[in-house]
């Protein structure tokens, strides 16, 4: 399948979107979009820069007063129309995603539905984003606390979930009354273009959503430095998050940073082992391990270690690697050659330090890497200090609860953590002790539009989704009324 097989050709603009117009780069420059499964070029899109980003910010700033002046019902109606269009175009969007990102088609379909859910959720949530009347300190006065749209919001989205991460940022911003300038990952701009085209069709006014394609360094610098941008939301690595935070400091922007993770997945002796294996599979191998919340370090207590490993190996060996467009494929390619090389580096480091490869452990050509299970891994390995972002599962033994909590927390990251146990007391105790913003107990899939998503420590700040998702795009105003 090629891009020409997409039914709704209106989704394929090969352009940026500024002030309600589809535009090219000022200098005519382009960047290629590659299919990670085949290595072939799918499309060429504009390679924009500082000037185009500045115009997008100006367009968003100009559109902000009229957009925030709309009633909540009016903004919600536009978001609901966007939600419906995303669902109506599910198959085309899913195919486009698999072409440029590589994940199996069944996962892409799921992401489209997940992405659409944020437009629906925040259309509804906007109507509940009220304020407070606070008891006043003296008679004949009243304290009003209200939430107001922060202003122009810049959003830098990642390649691993190119639709869901865009809507998870843009939907609450628009619901709150903000306008948006979006910079998608260079590897996956086609999904962002398609979603923006549907937003336009849904009735989002000119300038309310703007899309700038090109170099993350150049465009990101303008988004951070421009004082008209009041909020910066970024999903990506901790290393880049540090840079963006520093660049935003001179203009004191609100920051929402969803950064790297190194999730521990803990299986206790009293766990339901088959269920633990099932949840570990879901957490570790979704999107070929390329998720910030996937299990990066799997700790299994001695009493169930052998049983867990036997079942886990059986399930991993049943995975089918291939082009995400092909029937039955459960593991697609990694995003590029550098990702495949990193997977090999992590496996080699574990093996050199005593780990055993129970299955996989080898590159499969191109951007493909075999689903891999490593046993008897020590703590002094790369997966303990870095995100692997690949279908590689290192498994560590542990003896007792206090020991594993200490080992699980021994990281600069604090995005997600998982534990499997049938002991309610242990579930509560360990959940409280783990240093992470998201905890899964006997569950490996933890993301939903209803829940606040985000981390602690160097995994970022702020939350996306749930009743908390609009907070990043609003400012609190206190008014003292005398009468």
From TrEMBL:
UniProt keyword Oxidoreductase present: yes
Keywords carried by this UniProt record: Oxidoreductase
A Pfam family per the record: Aldedh
Family annotation (InterPro entries): Ald_DH/histidinol_DH (IPR016161), Ald_DH_C (IPR016163), Ald_DH_CS_CYS (IPR016160), Ald_DH_CS_GLU (IPR029510), Ald_DH_N (IPR016162), Aldehyde_DH_dom (IPR015590), Aldehyde_DH_Superfamily (IPR050740)
Keyword Oxidoreductase in record: yes
Gene3D superfamilies recorded: Aldehyde Dehydrogenase, Chain A, domain 1 (3.40.605.10), Aldehyde Dehydrogenase, Chain A, domain 2 (3.40.309.10)
CDD domains: ALDH_F5_SSADH_GabD
Enzyme active site: 258
Aldehyde dehydrogenase domain mapped to chain residues: 22-478
Family: Belongs to the aldehyde dehydrogenase family.
Protein known as: NAD-dependent succinate-semialdehyde dehydrogenase
Annotated organism of origin: Candidatus Doriopsillibacter californiensis
């Amino acid at each position: 399948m090629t891009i020409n097989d997409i039914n709704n050709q209106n989704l394929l603009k090969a352009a940026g979107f500024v002030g309600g117009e589809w535009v090219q780069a000022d200098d005519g420059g382009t960047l290629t979009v590659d299919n990670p499964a085949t290595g072939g070029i799918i499309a060429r899109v504009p390679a924009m820069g500082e000037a185009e980003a500045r115009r997008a910010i100006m367009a968003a700033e100009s559109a902000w007063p009229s957009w925030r002046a709309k009633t909540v019902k009016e903004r919600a109606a536009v978001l609901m129309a966007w939600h419906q269009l995303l669902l109506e175009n599910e198959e085309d969007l899913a195919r486009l995603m698999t072409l440029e990102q590589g994940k199996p088609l069944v996962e892409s379909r799921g992401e489209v539905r997940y992405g659409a859910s944020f437009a629906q959720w925040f259309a509804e949530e906007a109507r509940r984003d009220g304020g407070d009347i606070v008891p006043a300190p003296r008679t004949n006065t009243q304290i009003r606390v209200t939430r107001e749209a922060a202003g122009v919001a810049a959003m830098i989205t990642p390649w691993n979930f190119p639709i869901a991460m865009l809507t998870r940022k843009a939907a609450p911003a628009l619901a709150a009354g903000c306008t948006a300038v979006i910079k998608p990952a260079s590897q996956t701009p086609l999904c962002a273009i398609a979603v923006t085209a549907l937003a336009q069709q849904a009735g989002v006014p000119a300038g309310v959503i703007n899309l700038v394609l090109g170099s993350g360094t150049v465009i990101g610098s303008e988004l951070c430095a421009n004082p008209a941008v009041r909020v910066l939301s970024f999903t990506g690595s901790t290393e880049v998050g540090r840079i963006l935070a520093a660049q935003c400091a001179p203009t004191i922007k609100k920051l929402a940073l969803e950064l790297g993770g190194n999730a521990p997945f803990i299986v206790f002796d009293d766990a339901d082992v088959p269920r633990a294996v099932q949840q570990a599979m879901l957490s570790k191998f979704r999107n070929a391990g390329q998720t910030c919340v996937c299990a990066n370090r799997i700790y299994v207590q001695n009493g169930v270690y052998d049983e867990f490993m036997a079942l886990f190996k059986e399930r991993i060996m049943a995975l089918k690697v291939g082009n995400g467009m092909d029937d039955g494929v459960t593991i697609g390619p990694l995003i590029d050659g550098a990702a495949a090389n990193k997977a090999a580096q992590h496996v080699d480091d574990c093996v050199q330090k005593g780990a055993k490869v129970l299955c996989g452990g080898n590159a499969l050509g191109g951007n493909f890497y075999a689903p891999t299970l490593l046993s008897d891994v020590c703590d002094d390995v790369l997966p303990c200090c870095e995100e692997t972002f690949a279908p590689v599962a290192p498994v560590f033994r542990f003896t007792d609860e206090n020991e594993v909590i200490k080992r699980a927390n021994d990281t600069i990251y604090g995005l997600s953590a998982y534990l499997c146990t049938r002991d309610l007391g242990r579930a509560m105790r360990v959940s409280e002790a783990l240093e992470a913003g998201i905890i899964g107990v006997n569950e490996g899939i933890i993301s939903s539009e209803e829940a606040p998503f985000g981390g602690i420590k160097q995994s970022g700040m702020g939350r996306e989704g749930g009743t908390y998702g609009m907070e990043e795009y609003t400012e609190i105003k206190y008014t003292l009324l005398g009468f």
